[in-house]
Design brief:
1% strand, mainly alpha, 2 strands, single chain, two-stranded antiparallel sheet
């Protein structure tokens, strides 16, 4: 039995070797033209985002004319501390060697401790600061309290995509007998942290040597992610996106036994369907997966050259049936739960058409347009809304012209992705009646970092922007990497960029739904980025200590293991 498993594994690996010599497929296992197109298109838009983040006003120390606020000694001290650490790290060769030796021995333990500290900080933050949130979040919260309100019935009729989160919050509030903001904030915290661990599991499967890096990087990110106090679909969809990415990862591993891959298929199907009902645009990575898998299937067809053994046809049929069931069953269950619910009355004739968001996407800075939203409420039929939005969209495009529209897209890409605070405090009536700290002590201190008129809000923005630049840097400098998983994640982000350019965007809050993809891509890209930056450092300063013989205590300059074979 063991021999048979090894033979099957070897056969699978032989099938999955990219065909370099034939020139038909690239190192990623994708057609060279498609591989190059994804890479070039991604880096065109990502470079705009990266430069926008590097030059963002939030990175300015002292008075900031763009925001009318100023950083304090907190940001200055943070910069001095980082510069001191970098100086000691690069100058002290022996200290650097001892540091890497310690990292190699206790990497995951250190990352776990960092996560625990970050989680404790999150809990402290929520216990001390849990204000009522305005805009759509408030509508959902009020519907949990009073679903019979006619205005709320109209709201959910116009925006039925928020029905699932309403039903979940209602059920959880009923179970725990509380409707407080504190309760829903704690739930959001749990969901965000669950997404972190699902992402760590993905890295643990794909690149086990980067597991500690994944946990440490995301733990640092949690420190500058205050959206745990915003119980909305942006954060609640994160574990679902991470879940279907994990399921896909399990399915693609030929070394796993059939029951494990079957579990992965279940997670893949359920996570994808639940993501669609929670936040439809968050399935864009699923579309990217489907596109790349289509190219992989094309490769299989080319390799078979028209010869299809009966055994393979049977296996393909069973695989297709399993995929269909994995998606159809949760789609039916969740569809019934949402479409046949009786908790709040929803009129499908009032639903906002997709073209409305397309029209808003070219108005102003490409973000929310109150006049358009009001017009949608005034028009009585779906046909009228579609017609109005379509005509408005065409007129706005015509007014901009070709060059004007390209310039608009350039600026919109920056607005969509460059803000490391993820547009914190940029929604209308973000917090209900709260704009400045109202308490003293620790509560007041935490509020001063997160409230609109807090003394340290610019310090928070500075710290968040600093980390955002670091995160984007890990991706930017790995431009030479082209394996299948990195290319799939790049295509996922590219799809997200294009979606936000075409539809409603204008602020980086919409990037939250793509955080699992962004964080996974940053972790997988980190080794290549550090190699690239190291080579640049050596070229600029050959006597830096990096160019000599590498100590055994330091991390390897080249990935120690080749990428695992891909499964079809």
């Amino acid at each position: 039995m063991r021999v048979r498993q090894v033979q099957q594994t070897n056969h699978s690996q032989a099938e999955n070797v990219p065909e370099h010599k034939s020139g038909q497929f690239s190192r990623s296992g994708l057609p060279p033209v498609w591989d190059a197109l994804v890479r070039v298109a991604f880096y065109i838009l990502f470079t705009i985002s990266y430069l926008g983040a590097l030059t963002h006003s939030y990175l300015r120390l002292g008075d900031n004319a763009a925001t009318g606020m100023s950083t304090t000694l907190f940001s200055t001290g943070l910069v001095i501390l980082l510069l001191l650490i970098l100086t000691v790290f690069f100058v002290g060769v022996h200290l650097r060697q001892r540091f890497w030796a310690g990292v190699r021995r206790h990497a995951f333990l250190g990352a776990a401790v960092l996560f625990i500290l970050a989680a404790c900080f999150q809990v402290l933050l929520i216990l001390k600061v849990h204000p009522g949130i305005g805009w759509d979040v408030d509508a959902i919260h009020m519907a949990v309290i009073d679903p019979q309100d006619p205005d709320l019935e109209t709201y959910f009729s116009m925006y039925p995509n928020n029905v699932l989160i309403l039903l979940l919050q209602h059920k959880l509030a009923d179970w725990f007998q509380t409707q407080s903001w504190l309760f829903f904030d704690l739930l959001t915290l749990v969901l965000v942290d669950l997404s972190v661990w699902l992402n760590v599991a993905v890295i643990g499967i794909l690149k086990p040597q980067l597991t500690a890096v994944a946990l440490a990087l995301q733990s640092l990110f949690l420190l500058v992610f205050p959206y745990i106090m915003v119980p909305y679909t942006d954060a609640w969809v994160l574990p679902l996106v991470s879940l279907y990415l994990l399921g896909y990862c399990l399915v693609k591993q030929p070394r796993f036994m059939v029951p494990v891959r079957g579990l992965g298929l279940i997670l893949f199907g359920f996570g994808s369907v639940a993501t669609y009902y929670m936040k439809p645009s968050a399935i864009i990575p699923l579309i990217a997966i489907g596109m790349n898998e289509a190219w992989r299937l094309l490769r299989r067809l080319i390799k078979q050259r028209g010869r299809f053994p009966l055994r393979r046809l049977g296996a393909a049929a069973l695989t297709g049936l399993a995929i269909g069931v994995a998606f159809a069953l949760p789609a039916k269950l969740l569809g019934q739960a949402v479409n046949q619910q009786s908790y709040i009355e929803v009129d499908p004739d009032l639903a906002i058409p997709a073209v409305h968001y397309l029209s808003m996407g070219v108005s102003g800075t490409g973000g929310y347009n109150a006049a358009d939203a009001l017009k949608m409420a005034e028009l009585q039929t779906v046909e009228e809304r579609v017609q109005y939005s379509l005509e408005t969209w065409k007129q706005r495009l015509q007014d901009k012209g070709v060059l004007g529209y390209l310039s608009f897209l350039l600026q919109k890409q920056v607005s969509n992705t460059a803000d490391g605070s993820l547009a914190w405090l940029k929604e209308g009536s973000f917090m209900q009646g709260v704009e400045e700290p109202t308490y003293g002590g620790l509560t007041g201190l935490l509020q001063s970092f997160l409230y609109l008129y807090g003394n340290h809000v610019q310090d928070f923005r500075f710290a968040a922007q600093l980390f955002w630049v670091f995160l984007l840097s890990l991706i930017f400098w790995a431009c030479k990497e082209r394996d299948f998983w990195i290319q799939t994640l790049r295509l996922s982000l590219l799809g997200g960029f294009l979606f936000l350019l075409l539809f409603e965007g204008g602020r980086s809050r919409y990037m939250i739904q793509f955080l699992p993809v962004l964080l996974l891509l940053a972790v997988l890209s980190a080794p290549a980025s550090f190699r690239q930056l190291r080579s640049i450092w050596v070229a600029v300063k050959p006597d830096s200590g990096w160019s000599g013989r590498r100590s055994e205590s330091e991390p390897p300059a080249v990935s120690p293991k080749p990428d695992p074979p891909l499964s079809d």
